[in-house]
Amino acid sequence: MVFVLNGKRKVETMEPIIATEGSKVYQLAPAGTFQAVCFGAWDIYWHKNNFGTVQRKVVVGWEISETMSEGEQAGKRFCVYKQYTLSLNEKANLRKDLESWRGKAFTPDELRGFDITKLVGANCMLSIIHTEKGPKTYVNVTSVARLMKGLTPMKQENVGITPKLVEVLREKAASNSANKPEDIHDEEEAPAADGEDSDIPF
Question: What are the CA-CA distances from residue 82 to residues 8, 25, 29, 143 (Å)?
């Protein structure tokens, strides 16, 4: 490359930048509504939000019915994720999505505590949109609904996000100085009702 600096001509040799057939291609999950299966739920501990409130956060991951068409991941299902505050408060997004997913409101006993790992393997319908922020496009899960009648349930293929990614999320929480407050206690899990509403996914 030749360029001019302070009126002087200078030649600089650039390092080669080589693309190969094996270079990774990152594909965004498509926007729309898709059948999906939950393949993981991860606790990423305590975070402090912009208002100084400490909240426990979790991430839920799904595989959708669409598959990737390019790169070394071609043929594999797209995976999408959503972060939630671990709360069943009536205004909490987690509660809204879970009740929409199961097609039934939680009972008072169920609201005492729900183990989100029970979501793994459960099918649903996911609505996904693309959101642009500057030069980047993000995939966002906007709604979770009960599986449509007549569809054959999908079986999960993935084993979860990598331990490294979970650790990154947890380190992000720690960097916010969001250690678990001493006055907050984990909720007791409510006992499961035997044989009741067996068609509910969880």
Answer: 54, 22, 13, 10
Residue 151 lies in a domain: yes
pLDDT in tens, 73-112: 889 999 999 999 999 999 999 999 999 999 999 999 999 9
Q: From residue 22, how far is each of 67, 72, 183 by CA, in Å?
A: 19, 7, 52
Q: Is residue 21 part of a domain?
A: no
Domain tally, the chain: 1
Long-range contacts of 12-20 (CB under 8 A, 24+ apart): none
Residue 39 placed within a domain: yes
- Residues 132-157 have pLDDT tens digits of 999 999 999 999 999 999 999 999 99
Report the distance separating Cα 152 and Cα 123, nearest Å: 9
Strand pairing class (2-5; 136-145): unpaired
Residue 99 belongs to a domain: yes
pLDDT, mean of residues 107-123 = 95
Residue 76, amino acid:
K
> d(Cα 126, Cα 34) in Å, to the nearest integer?
5
Per-residue pLDDT at 127 exceeds 90: yes
Q: Rounded distance, CA 49 to CA 66, Å?
A: 34
In contact, 102 and 198? CB cutoff 8 Å: no
- More confident call, 107 vs 16: 107
Give me the domain span that covers residue 139.
Answer: 27-157+170-175
CA dihedral 116, 122, 124, 129 (to 10 degrees): 50
Residue 137, phi then psi, degrees to nearest 5: -115, 130
